[in-house]
Each structure stands twice: as C-alpha cells, then as structure tokens.
Design brief:
Order of helices and strands: HHHHHHHHHHHHHHH
Number of strands: 0
Strand content: under 5%
Shape: globular
Number of helices: 15
Largest sheet: none
Radius of gyration: 21 Å
Length: 411
C-alpha cells in the first residue's frame, strides 16, 4: 500500500475515533447532569459550555491548523480530549462539578481542532491520489464513514453506561482520545517547510478570515449555501418531532419517521462525489434546496403516517448531501494553505445556525404555529432555490478551476 493510501486510511480511522467519542459523550453528559438533579434549562446552559467558546475561537484555530499543519493540530486536539477525559473521571469520583465543566470547555476546543484538521487533511491528501481525479468521491466516502461513527456513538455510550455506569463512558471517552493521539502520528506529514509559509497571529486571524470570505466568492458561496442546507438539517432534528407530536403521532411513529430520514441521509452520502462530478455543484445544490422546500410544504399539510414517512425519507436525501458537498466545495475553492481556516469557518457557521435557528424558528412558530412556520419556510426555500437555479452568473467552484485562496496565505 502506498504512503498516501496509508495516510488516507489513518485519516479515516481518526475520524471514526473522533466521532465515536464526541457523539458518545454528549447524550451521556446530559443524563449525568439530570441525575445530579439539575433542571432542563440548567442542563442546556451546562451543555452549551462545549459549543460557545469554540465558535469564537474557530477562526484563530483554523489559522493555527494552517500554520502547524493538520497532523500536529490533530495531535494537540486529541491531547486536549484526553485531558478532558481525565477531568471527567476526577469530577465523577470526587463529585466535583468544576472539573466536569472545565472538561466541557477543553473538549470543545480540542474537538474543533481535531475535526477541522481532519477535514483539511482529507482534502489535501485526496488531491494527491491519482492526480486528484477521485477527490470528490474520496471526500464523500470520508463523510460517510464519519457519519457511521456519529450514528454509532450514542448507542455505544448507552450500552457502556448500562454495563459500567458513567465512569465506564468517561474512561472509554478518554481512551478513544488517547488513541487519537497515537493515530495522529500516522497521519500524512506536510512537505518540508510547506506550512512555515503560513504566518499566524491570533487577533489578525479574524481579519484573515474576513478577507478569505470577501476575496474568494466561490468559498463565500459555499459557506452561505452550506448554512442554508444546515437550517433544513436543524429543523428536521429539532422541530419535526414537535410538529408530528402535535399531529398526534405516537412516539414510535415519530421515531420511525425520523429513522427514515436518518437512513436516507446515510444512503446518499457515498454517492455525492460522483453526483457532483456528473451533474455539477449548481444542479445538486439547487435540487437540494428546492426539494427541501417542497418537503417542508408537504409536511405542513398534516398527512398520514406513510406519506409523512416518505416525505421524511426525501427530506433525508436532500439534507444528507450537505456535509460531503460542503466539504468538497470548500476543498475545491481553497488552496492547501487555507484548508484549516476554511474548514473551521464552515464548522463555525454550522454551530452558529444550530444556536440561532431554534431561537428564530421557535419564536416564529410560537406566534403563527408550527404548520404555518413549516409552510412559510418551505415557500421561502422554494423561492430562494428557484432564484439560485435561474441565476446566469455562478460563483460555484469547479474542479478545473485553480483554487482561489492563494492570495490569503496568512489564513
């Protein structure tokens, strides 16, 4: 096996370990805080500690990844995750809340470093295999493998908790991050002196991120369209269960409908790269936005279970393309020196949507009701998708285009 192929496998395995640990610990921590006697609102505040600081640090962390390289960034982030596991164990055994809260903050920063760096590493490495001819396909496979681990994490955490209690979950979480430290040593090395061309200053990185968005229209479009599709992802997971409950669906029926969406989202991901190669970014993006708007409109009609399940399956297909397509679009619009910054800003945009969308959509639906809110957002998405599809001038990246990030090498 070639060194490049070995490096790609190491990236894939690192992504599996990262998502297993990250998606395993969050639901278990929610239950842990609940068992300590905290109410729902307080638990929400406690859990937000992991997300708030990384959003503000995403751009400097992206600049740091471009400066030191993805390999060292994954090593540092995994080390932070290992320390977070040790803090969880200390807080659990001594019944101290402070170490648990500190572990949340530390793990949030480490997780942002690891996932952004792994995406950058996958992007750069995929370009070197077969002259980059299979880049789109490899990145969609990378997204698919990561999503499998993301799906398995909560189930693994639940089984560990039933078998050995919270301490078993916290221990395995720490061990998975420690394994990530070792796996980081197998990640591809940067060329000698390559990363040293990228300067890094903490406060200046914010200006660098702004210039990257301002000067690179293809990248800015990729981030904006990714945010639009991520709204569909967030609404599906947050408000669809509430809407179906209002329609007097049983919990089993709601679970089955959401499972149909999750299955469709998983099934489409391995094929996104080939679809993009065949149909192009614009066609796939427009189809996803238009179909997402149509499915929201249909859902607002309050149809029977089997029709609802079919709608949710279609919804899963149109939202399942988001992660691999956004990753491919960011990769195609930036050069190697800006991949860390680019992927970090994408993660920051997703987390911002996750924080704002429940407030905005929840506030609107509280006034007009969920059916009207679903119908209104569906109509807005249809209008936006039609406008985007009919535009003559496009700023979407193409595989034949040179990356547009070279001017922003300070990333």
């Amino acid at each position: 096996m070639s060194g490049r192929g070995t490096g790609l496998y190491a990236i894939f395995l690192s992504a599996v370990g990262y998502w297993l640990s990250f998606s395993m610990i969050r639901p278990i921590l929610t239950l842990y805080f609940h068992d300590l006697g905290y109410g729902t609102a307080t638990i929400g505040l406690l859990m937000s500690a992991q997300a708030i600081l990384p959003v503000f640090l995403a751009i400097p962390l992206g600049g740091l990844i471009d400066r030191i390289g993805p390999r060292r960034a994954v090593l540092a982030g995994s080390a932070l995750g290992t320390g977070s596991g040790a803090m969880l164990m200390a807080g659990y055994y001594h019944e101290w809340l402070a170490p648990v809260m500190l572990s949340q903050i530390v793990n949030g920063i480490g997780a942002m470093l690891v996932w952004s760096a792994l995406q950058a590493a996958a992007s750069v490495t995929a370009r070197t295999i077969d002259g980059g001819a299979k880049k789109n396909d490899l990145l969609s496979q990378f997204s698919f493998v990561a999503s499998l681990a993301q799906l398995a994490g909560p189930a693994a955490g639940g089984m560990l908790s039933d078998a050995g209690g919270y301490s078993a979950v916290f221990l395995v979480f720490g061990l998975l991050n420690a394994a990530g430290v070792l796996m980081a040593l197998r990640l591809p090395r940067e060329g000698k002196g390559k990363r040293r061309e990228v300067s890094f200053r903490f406060w200046r990185s914010y200006a660098d991120g702004y210039r990257l968005m301002r000067d690179n229209r293809a990248y800015a479009a990729a981030i904006g369209l990714n945010a639009v599709l991520f709204v569909l992802v967030d609404v599906r997971s947050t408000f669809v269960p509430l809407f179906l409950a209002e329609q007097r669906f049983t919990h089993a029926s709601i679970g089955a409908a959401l499972a149909a969406a999750a299955a469709a989202s998983m099934l489409i991901r391995p094929f996104v790269g080939r679809l993009l190669d065949r149909l192009g970014y614009r066609a796939i993006m427009a189809a996803s936005i238009l179909s997402g708007g149509a499915f929201m409109l249909l859902l607002s009609a309050g149809l029977p279970f089997w029709a609802t399940a079919a709608i949710m399956f279609g919804w899963g297909l149109c939202t399942g393309v988001n992660q691999p397509m956004a990753m491919i679009m960011v990769s195609s619009s930036l050069d190697d020196r800006n991949q860390g910054m680019g992927m970090s800003i994408r993660s920051m945009a997703n987390r911002t949507v996750s924080g704002l969308n429940p407030l905005v959509f929840g506030g609107i639906s509280g006034i007009v009701g969920l059916p009207v809110a679903f119908a209104g957002m569906g109509a807005a998405l249809l209008a936006f998708g039609a406008w985007y599809r009919l535009r003559r001038s496009g700023v979407m990246p193409r595989e034949t285009d040179a990356p547009q990030g070279a001017a922003n090498s300070s990333g």
